[in-house]
Amino acid sequence: MDNVQSLMEKNSELFRQAYNEKIQIWLDHVFLTWRWWIGAAVIVLCLLIWFRLRKQESADRLFYAGSFTAILTTFLNLTGLTFGLWEYRYELLPAEAYIPWDFFLLPTVIMLLLLFKPHINPWFKAIFLGVLVSFVGLPMLSWLGLYEPINWNYIYSFPIMMVIYFLAHFISRRNIFSK
């Protein structure tokens, strides 16, 4: 048991050292660079678009769906990062997840898909989201140097994005949002 404790303490110390180094790299090479400003601009644009286009009577149910999306995508991103499937560079904060993507861009896109043309078959919207994220969004993030797939192929994101949309759609249609 003492051996496990010793190994865990050593691991914790190595993690603290690595994180301190990451913060220093972020301060020296990421903070306020043009790529950092892209992340900040994405957040501001998503907030402006959402507040401008949302319908007040739908805002609560869509916000729940968007919050669920943010939590789920953050969990999936952290899982992928932990297993070395991809990495993000030029984070807005020296955190592991790419906050503009997880907390703002994906939730905003999904909330807008749920808001507009609500009677369109959810399969079409899910496929659209999967194509948009997998074959436009992620390659663009990679091209900009913000995202680096390591052991990941863009096509893998396609069914995952579809499932995320279906779950958000389900949450947004729950009866608890009825007046």
Helix-residue proportion: over 70%
Q: Output the radius of gyration.
A: 19 Å
Note the gap between the termini: 56 Å
Label the structural class. Answer: mainly alpha
Residue runs with pLDDT of under 50 for 5 or more positions = none
Strand content: under 5%
Give me the secondary-structure topology:
Layout: H1 2-29, H2 34-53, H3 59-82, E1 86-88, H4 99-115, H5 122-143, E2 147-149, H6 154-172
Antiparallel strand pairs: 1-2
Question: How would you describe what is shown here?
Answer:
- The protein has 179 residues and is mostly helical.
- The chain folds into two domains: 1-30; 34-177, no CATH class.
- It has helices at residues 2-29, 34-53, 59-82, 99-115, 122-143, 154-172; strands at residues 86-88, 147-149.
- A two-stranded antiparallel ribbon has the order 1-2.
- Helix 5 (122-143) packs across helix 6.
Main attributes?
179 residues; mainly alpha; 2 domains; two-stranded antiparallel ribbon; 6 helices; 73% helix
Summary?
This protein is mainly α and 179 residues long.
